[in-house]
């Protein structure tokens, strides 16, 4: 593993310098403190949550820290701090760290998950894979249920795989033809083009003998997707909000939620331990074949192309599901 050890005290790191602007800088190599490890990163997934800072809102401070915003990294441990006994240089890992748009990052030892040899060479953005596992667990999907998934991006496709594996009948819904095909490949028994919300609602009524769905997972993060997901949830059904709703307040049809007696689950986590638990489950899920993220990582960019990766994440060109930065 000697080739993985740093030979100099500097690294390349991406820095966001303003709205829609980034550059790669030389930065000091981070040093692991007690209870931490340093990771020579292979890559980092590009998260839609980066798009807010990338747009340059008033609350954002530029430039970002070296590697800042990157939190979906994986790679090889190359140094450990004092007090770390169960990890060592040469271990390939996924990590929950926060400066992973760089060649190196440090992470708390308890925020690092080892990757088995069976996943050698495979990109593994642990945080979003862990999110999918945690969302699925909170969704309570059971065999025989009818589940609608509104939004067939990276997250929606993973959730489709998990719901099908659990024995549910899945209705996948998306505005993009490419995403509908991804939903079919993920196992969705029915896919519906979302051009008109009323037409989708009537189609789901027809498919379910007017009972609508036992579980609906909203995986877009827009007012319109929340509205549609609510309409598709049957009486005493479960509405699961997995979309990232961070661009302003939302309105809900509380009269309908109340009348139907819906269970509403906000399937987001903030406890790092829960994130890491999800990553561990994702490692097992990928290694066992329960989920297959490989085909869903559709675009790869160099670190110097992070701006292009963020723009693609925002604009979602045809054929795009998720980007990763590779190092």
Give the low-pLDDT segments: 1-6
Summing up helix and strand content along with how strands pair, one would put the structural category as alpha/beta
**Strand percent estimate:** 25-35%
Q: What shape does the CA trace take?
A: globular
Q: How many beta-strand segments?
A: 15
The helix tally amounts to 9
Round the Cα radius of gyration to an integer and report it: 20 Å
Q: What's the helical proportion of residues?
A: 25-40%
Sheet having the most strands: 7 strands, mixed
Question: Secondary-structure blueprint of this entry?
Answer:
Elements lengths: L9 E9 L2 E8 L7 E10 L5 H4 L18 E8 L11 E4 L8 E5 L3 E3 L11 H14 L6 E5 L3 H12 L3 E6 L2 H9 L4 E4 L3 H11 L5 E6 L4 H10 E9 L12 H7 L2 E4 L5 H16 L11 E4 L3 H10 L7 E4 L1
What does this structure look like?
With 327 residues, the protein is of the alpha/beta class. It has nine helices and 15 strands. Strands 3, 4, 5, 6, 7, 14 and 15 form a seven-stranded mixed β-sheet that branches. α2 (126-139) crosses α3 (154-165) and α2 (126-139) crosses α8 (272-287). The longest helix has 16 residues, at 272-287.
